[in-house]
Amino acid sequence: MNASLTPEEILRWHIAAGADEAIGETAIDRYAAPPKQPVVFREDRPSLPIAPAPPALDGAHPALACRTLAELKDALFAYEGCALKKTCRQTVFADGTPGSGVMLVGEAPGADEDRIGLPFVGASGRLLDRMLASIGLDRNSCYITNLVPWRPPGNRKPEQTEIELCLPFLIRHIELVAPRFLLLLGGAPTSALLGRHDAISRLRGRWHDCVLPREGKIVPALPTFHPAYLLRTPAHKRLAWADFLALRKRLDGAA
After folding, report:
1. pLDDT tens across 178-231, in order?
2. Three-state SS for 69?
3. Sign of torsion, CA 141 176 205 185?
4. CB-hemisphere CA count at 13 Å for 101?
5. In 3-state terms, what secondary structure has residue 216?
6. Would you state the pLDDT for residue 37?
7. DSSP letters of 132-174?
C-alpha cells in the first residue's frame, strides 16, 4: 500500500478489499506484551495414583527358608510378589557349576534369555563366553545368574522396587553357592550388592567386599562392565579385558 495515501483513501481501500466490519471498539496493539494469565488452583483436579510401597522383606521372606539351591529355585518359581513375572515367559534361574568358585551376576534376562530360560544366551552372552574363554573359563567352570530373574518389558532396566523384591533371592543364592569370588556385570548388581551408587566406570577394576548380612560373611567382588554395554561401547572392551585378567590373577593366587 502507498504510504502517501490519506486516512480516507486508506479506509476506502479496506472497504473495497472487503474489510467493511470492525471486530472491536478499540484498535489492537499487536506489539504489546500479552497480559499475564492468573494461576488458578482447582480443588477438583484429579490426584495422581500413588505407587504402593513394596512389601516388607522380613524373616518370613520365602528365600530365607531355603536350604538348598533346588529349594531356592522352587521358591523363586512359586513367588508371585513381583509384577515382572506376569509380563515375561519364564523364570531364568542360573547356569553353570555352583561349586566352581566363581559366580557371575548380571542385571536381568533379555528376550533370548526369556525364550530359552538361561542367563546370557543372546548376543551379550556370546561375548561373555568369549571373554571367559580368554582367561580359561567357560560355563562349566563358573556359575551365572542375574539380579532379577524375570525379563523387564522391552528390555528396560529393572526399577528399584523390583530390585528390592528380588534381592533377597540373590543374596540367598550367593549364600548357598558360597563362591570364592563374585564378578558383578554392570551397575545394577554392583549397586544392589555393594551398596555403592558410583558409576560403574569408577567402581570397576577394583576388588570390593560383598557382605552377606545374615551370615556376616565377606565375598570378594569385582565389578566390571556388562557385556551388553560393551557391545554398544566397544572402546571399553580394553578395560573389561583388564578386569577379567584381574579375576584370573586372583584365581591363580597371584593377587
Report:
1. 999 999 999 999 999 999 999 999 999 999 999 998 878 999 999 999 999 999
2. helix
3. positive
4. 8
5. coil
6. 53
7. HHTTT--TTSSEEEESSSSPPGGGPPPPHHHHHHHHHHHHHHH
Amino acid at 129: D
3-state helix, strand, coil in the chain (%, to 5): 40, 10, 45
Residues 176 and 153 sit within 8 Å (Cβ to Cβ): no
- pTM of the prediction? 0.76
Question: Angle between the 69-78 and 160-177 helix axes, to the nearest 10 degrees?
Answer: 160
- Which residue from 213, 110, 209, 222 is spatially nearest to 170, judged by alpha carbons? 213
Cell numbers representing residue 50 in the block: 500413588
Q: What is the pLDDT of residue 110?
A: 97
| Helix or strand holding residue 190 (H, E) | helix 187-194
CA distance to 55, 107, 116, 141, 198, per residue, from 228 (Å): 31, 10, 18, 22, 19
For 110, the grid coordinates are 533379555
Q: Assess whether pLDDT exceeds 70 at residue 56.
A: no
Question: How far is 39 from 42, CA to CA, in rounded Å?
Answer: 10
Identify residue 140 by its one-letter amino acid code: N
Place of cell 515382572: 84
